[in-house]
Amino acid sequence: MSDLRDLYQEVILDHHKRPRNFRRIENANRQADGYNPLCGDKISVYMRLENGVLADIAFIGTGCAISTASASMMTEHLKGKTEAEARIVFDQFHRLVTNHSGGPEFADIGKLAVFSGVREYPVRVKCATLAWHTMHAALNQKAETVATE
Question: Which of 14, 19, 35, 146 is the most exposed place for a label (fewest CB within 10 A)?
Fold first, then answer.
């Protein structure tokens, strides 16, 4: 268990200090904003869908290490996936951090599995899922700000 916690901390800190895809996409055709009023995390997710594929996905915002790392890893994992695949991964990630311990349905979630431990800390689940709910709102073209409350 210590090895998993060490890996979790290493991955989270790496993505927090050097977030991937941290930028606006000027020619985005989907965008949504998210806010966690409990801790003040704010995020905007930008996407460029081309023929049903996430040709590009990026984010900007401010937040804690978990929030930033989750957004960074989400963009890495989803870039190049179809819209349908992104929706499936959204569901898998949400189940992973809220109530499931893993299993074959999480086989394609890759490095995102490091977030499985946050389910033990309900307040941190909101940090880990903010980017995901914001991405989901962008896919659904929802104009209102996503809130975790």
Answer: 14
What is the number of structural domains in the chain?
A: 1
The reply to whether 69 falls in a domain is: yes
Q: What is the dihedral of CA 147, 106, 112, 30, to 10 degrees?
A: -50
Tokens of 60: 């900007």
- Tell whether 148 is covered by a domain: no
CA distance 7 to 133: 25
Region of 105 on the Ramachandran plot (φ > 0 left; ψ -120 to 50 alpha; else beta)? alpha
- Domain with residue 41: its CATH number is 3.90.1010.10
pTM of the model: 0.91
Nearest partner of 7 among 97, 110, 76, 123, judged by Cα = 110
pLDDT tens for the 149 residues of the chain, in order: 456 567 678 888 999 999 999 999 999 999 999 999 988 999 999 999 999 999 999 999 999 999 999 999 999 999 999 999 999 999 999 999 987 655 556 557 888 988 988 888 888 999 999 999 999 999 999 989 999 87
Position of tokens 């995020």? 43
Helix (H, G, I), strand (E, B) or coil at 100: coil
